[in-house]
Write a structure and sequence with these properties.
Four copies of one chain form a homotetramer. Chain A folds into two domains: 113 residues, NAD(P)-binding Rossmann-like Domain (Rossmann fold, 3-Layer(aba) Sandwich); 181 residues, Dihydrodipicolinate Reductase, domain 2 (2-Layer Sandwich). Helices cover 40% and strands 25% of the residues of chain A. Chain A is built from eleven helices and 15 strands. A seven-stranded mixed beta sheet of chain A has the order 12-11-7-10-9-8-15. In chain A, strand 9 and strand 10 form a beta hairpin. In chain A, helix 4 runs parallel beside helix 5, helix 5 runs antiparallel to helix 11 and helix 8 packs across helix 11. Strand 14 of chain B pairs antiparallel with strand 14 of chain D, so a sheet runs across the interface. Chains A, B, C, D: Belongs to the Gfo/Idh/MocA family. Chains A, B, C, D: InterPro entries: Gfo/Idh/MocA-like_OxRdtase_N, GFO_IDH_MocA-like_dom, NAD(P)-bd_dom_sf. Chains A, B, C, D: It holds the Pfam family GFO_IDH_MocA.
């Protein structure tokens, strides 16, 4: 049984609170939030208590592990707190928006030797995980080409986009991680072309909403990632891996299985309305993997180094958007 | 908030216990089972108490509603207890294996006026419910032909089959209900052909494991139901409704979304391993519908009369298997 | 090289004329029709000549084989002519609308010993043929249940229906043949329920437009066939074979491969507009099989006995529609 | 009726010969090949004559149009001959492997004013054409992202690759054309990353067999094209167009419609074995469009300027493979 404190009681914190409450091997003890009332409300819904101070939430007498779901600018600080307190930590990405500071944080935490997992929840998608299993089992042979699609239904609010770090760091970063994870290979360079097509104001804030990224992996294999902020047809996420022996894909997931046949067309249920509906089951699965690794002292299924690598790729990708050329990726951080 | 007692702590009782524990508007109080230890174990896992006696479980001072998931031969008795105690009841089908006794029970309970729902959980399948919505909305026009497929992965143990009442009463009865529910029409006659193909001992106990039923509805529309006990490819359940304006179907549900392409074939994830994996989400949905009807005093989404009708069709179907001719169905019970 | 005369220059005759003209091993010589002008026009389009008399068309000095595509009531007579002239014959079904006369014709022709094939063109559908190959190869194990769907887009003209012999003899007969062919098993009894739903005048002429047939095969395996005259969504033909080891299907064929995603739905190309668009490739394939059997003296892929069997099943099916009970099928004709 | 000469009796010439012979409005007169015997054999199979000399094949007294399917290095010369003779021409791409010489040829032919169509046969694929119709009709709104997949089953012989001009000019060029055609937009720059993964000798001849191209269109919309020479699972060609209002795709085409269900998997017919099986119907359709444009004096559905544009994009793409940066595309040739 692992005793948990949840740091952050916003939207994603409340999602994690549900997973914590439902997990049979978790004792969900504390919730901390800068807004104490919000912490109290969330804790109350799940039989936990609200922590008065951050120090209370990181008290090893009370908890074994913290789930860091606070605002992005506090991830690094909270990771250091966990390291200082000797607590295990499950942390939302990114480690820190500044790559250098993220790298320092990782080094600091590694010296402390606590178990840490970055919450790359898409690694726990049922179909993506099966795809990785097939690739690892050699069913497609040597990887030659990976195609990832990441498309959200509608442009997030501009206020959000302004502080998001840009499409590469906010959206595509998940797929940089998936590409590394599925292939087991690191990328050596990245090229990205992007446009602001959904709303001209996206260009005004120096960002793009539609982009095409190409990665070259260390083996020479290639990766294509298309990232779109506005589809008009729901949330579309897919992965295709082509290798020397064949191809496997984690296909487009439909929100339902009903089809209507009338006249010359067949109309089926489309995709999920948004990313949350699509990836919801991955949150509990990711927490389950973290708890299981803790209890068996197994390696973490997504390390801080993985988090750092995804960020480093995103930085190079953001540069390529500006330079118009393939940018080298340095993962020796 | 509805206070519940669960009657029966076997496999299906434990499934319902999870739904009861997770429902935000349910106060899961008591579990009763003829095996007190089993009741205690199940209650303990979900923060409920084990009832010492049936009377304790039906105590209106303790609970507002009972979930009757005890063995089939006790359904009728427990329904009468709920009626006597003035408790709402959610009951597993069948009401009673004997149709006459089932009819008497329904009359008794109706006189008491308690809210009762028969747990036809398949009505709460995401896709089946959407199909019904489409048919009700007139999207296929007047119904002409309904095709239902009900195929289980492997023959249940012979010991189970011997007491099951036969394929019509045990398996196909769910689909007799779905046919009535989706079309809003009553059948007037039924023909069934059946064989024991999976295991010759099925014939020895007077049952079949593969059957084809044809119903004629009051409008003249037709229904085909194929029921199979052994597929070798998992659990296969589908419904297709053809009408004057087109067709709609609740299609074959896949257990996953990964496809491998090698050589001349594409291999996709197949069907769910068994019926439970396929219909699991329907249990919580059915409970939710019952609670919602209780709280809003709305009509029950599946009444005792619906339960009785499905049983009456199953009786006629079982007769047709023997007579080799279409048997009339009398729903005026 | 086989020299052919085509008997009948109506719609289906003109379809066969194209196949005859395109086949590399066919010398398409003559066209006969009761309307000489029509024969002349069709022959002219394909470099053949119009025959003045039936005798000319059956002249062994001119042709090696005849393709009998004349009106139904002349099939038997033309088969006897082919037998008398010692010509090979490819004949449209049915042999004769009267089963006894059909049986006599078959006996007469068999005594003459000419090679004859009944044009059960659906046996040459790409997917149906592959399905049969799989079943023959044992990939589904012992057949337990076969599901056939036969649905036309719109009710044919009443004038046609009046002389068609009824839905069993005109439409379902093709699927009686497919059931025997794919399973390699003969049916022993048949039950059919039917209704006139598309147009009440169908009932006035003693026919049905929507029917559900159940066959019991000699092994105990069951067959379900749904036959519909009016879908509102195009032409729908499918076959599913479930056996002791698994299932295989020749699925719903789409008229195109384009899908549009907008809002919550995905709209795909639907089915073929009509039966002709769906089965068109089978005509040339059937002719090819006949020619190939002629040139290699191989057994015909669909014999007169097959044609007779399908008709005998249709007769029993038509009786069952009236009696409301399963009718025995006697294939010892 | 259009009288045709076919120039070139190799593999692709023999494909075109079949289309010419089958087209009702084509009088297939002559076949020319540098190997007279080969011309004679092909002509003989289709009721045409072999031309002794090129001059004979371009004789306006004999023919109205030429189909130029000779070796690549003779396309430009044969186009000039057609221009000089005042004959219409349907020409295989490319116009000439050298872009400057191709541009001169186009200018020369345009001065002559003859009707010319480049045989971009993929424009006549049933599904691609429907996709373009949808995009033109505004069903996806303003185009934002186009994804094209072009994957062949197995590496062509090295001898072929050596003279092919490289993957961009030989394979991807078709998809550069499709991207322009479907969107109605010209690209302004292109980036390509490529690797030789199927066979190291591909790198030795300075070519790639796996590549990812990104185009920026004049509107800012993006195009991704993945080109693969070796799949191990057949021929895979798809197009997806995402716009401001939704998405449409010309999906993966299957070679058959049979699915087998056994155990936990469903195995379906896969893709076509090779490009020819997949695109075969497009050849007759392209010829039909050319003849129809000739007979109605309509604009050609694929002009020499279209051919030149595709080549210019391929040149820039080939440069980008070397420079590692996005290369500008100049279509003002």
């Amino acid at each position: 049984m692992q005793r948990f404190a949840l740091i952050g009681a916003g939207f994603i914190g409340s999602v994690h609170a549900q997973s914590l409450a439902a997990h049979p091997d978790v004792d969900f003890r504390l919730v901390y939030d800068v807004d104490f009332g919000r912490a109290e409300a969330l804790a109350g819904r799940h039989g936990a208590r609200a922590a008065r101070t951050l120090a209370d939430a990181f008290d090893p007498a009370e908890v074994d592990a913290v789930f860091i779901a606070s605002s992005t600018d506090t991830h690094a600080e909270n990771l250091r707190r966990a390291a200082d307190a000797g607590l295990a930590a499950l942390v939302e990405k990114p480690i820190d928006l500044d790559l250098a500071r993220a790298a320092e944080t990782v080094a600091y935490v590694e010296r402390a030797g606590i178990p840490v997992m970055v919450d790359f929840n898409r690694r726990f998608d049922r179909d993506h995980a099966e795809l990785k299993r097939l690739v690892d089992a050699g069913e497609v042979g040597d990887v030659a080409l990976v195609q990832l699609t990441s498309r959200g239904p509608a442009l997030p609010p501009l206020e959000y986009l302004k502080v998001s770090g840009g499409q590469m760091r906010d959206q595509t970063v998940h797929f940089f991680d998936l590409a590394r994870w599925i292939t087991g290979l690191d990328p050596v360079e990245v090229f990205v072309a992007g446009s602001a097509l959904a709303d001209p104001r996206v260009a005004e804030i120096g960002d793009v909403d539609t982009s095409a990224a190409t990665l070259r992996l260390s083996s020479g294999a290639l990766v294509q990632i298309d990232s779109v902020r506005h589809t008009g047809y729901g949330y579309d996420e897919r992965i295709e891996v082509l290798g020397s022996e064949g191809m496997a894909e984690s296909g487009r997931m439909r929100a339902g299985g009903v089809t209507r046949f009338r006249g010359p067309h067949a109309t089926s249920d489309g995709l999920h309305a948004g990313w949350f509906e699509r990836v919801q089951p991955t949150y509990a699965a990711a927490l389950g993997a973290f708890v299981s690794a803790l209890e068996t002292s197994a390696p973490m299924p997504a390390t801080l180094r993985d988090g750092l690598a995804a960020q480093a790729i995103a930085e190079a990708a953001a540069r390529s958007l500006i330079t118009g050329r393939a940018e080298a990726i340095d993962l020796a951080l």
